[in-house]
Specification:
five-stranded mixed beta sheet, disordered N terminus, 14 strands
């Protein structure tokens, strides 16, 4: 089955904003066609040691204490020594929310699913530099852990029920900081 990309370059707004000690810049998401679905369970390796390209923005580091299953509708994204994490949820008892999105990196991605149910899926492009996901969320946790080892730029784009999430519905890092736009790009700094 061929799936259409979730975002095209023409849909992305361009903006640059400062967040914490680093920079997050919005940019075009990939439009490459995804490969066949993959729900592998590979454990991503350490994503931080030895990166010659610098460090990620401090605002992205650490898991947010505000995240829990059934929290307000939205996405939480953070980074640790194990790599990136994406989690989505919405209030329980309020029906199903279809979260879809893409993550594009300038380095290959290794990914594993977190608390996915039947019907939730993710897949990688043939060059493994674009990750796509589609989750039918019932108010519990759906998520991904992934590594894009030492990538200098990683672009995130997330939709809920077909509409781009408002930036205020995306929380980054331990402080749950909102990006300036959706999609947005995280860049390493020297």
């Amino acid at each position: 089955m061929i799936r259409k990309p979730l975002f095209t370059a023409g849909m992305a707004a361009l903006a640059t904003v400062g967040i914490g000690a680093g920079t997050v810049a919005a940019g075009p998401a990939a439009s490459a066609a995804p490969a066949a679905a993959s729900n592998g369970t590979t454990t991503p390796p350490d994503d931080t040691s030895g990166c010659a390209d610098g460090h990620l923005p401090a605002a992205l580091e650490g898991a947010p204490a505000s995240y829990h299953a059934g929290a307000a509708r939205g996405a939480w994204i953070w980074h640790t020594v194990k790599g990136y994490a994406i989690r989505v949820t919405h209030p329980q008892g309020s029906g199903v929310v279809e979260f879809t999105g893409s993550v594009t990196s300038d380095r290959p991605i290794a990914v594993s699913g977190v608390q996915l149910e039947a019907g939730d899926r993710y897949w990688l492009s043939s060059d493994r530099r674009t990750l796509y996901f589609a989750f039918s969320n019932t108010g519990h946790t759906d998520g991904l852990d992934f590594v894009a080892s030492c990538a200098s730029a990683v672009t995130f784009g997330i939709r809920a029920d077909g509409a781009l999430l408002a930036p205020s519905r995306i929380r980054l890092g331990a402080q749950a900081v909102a990006p300036a736009s959706d999609p947005f790009t995280v860049r390493r700094r020297s």
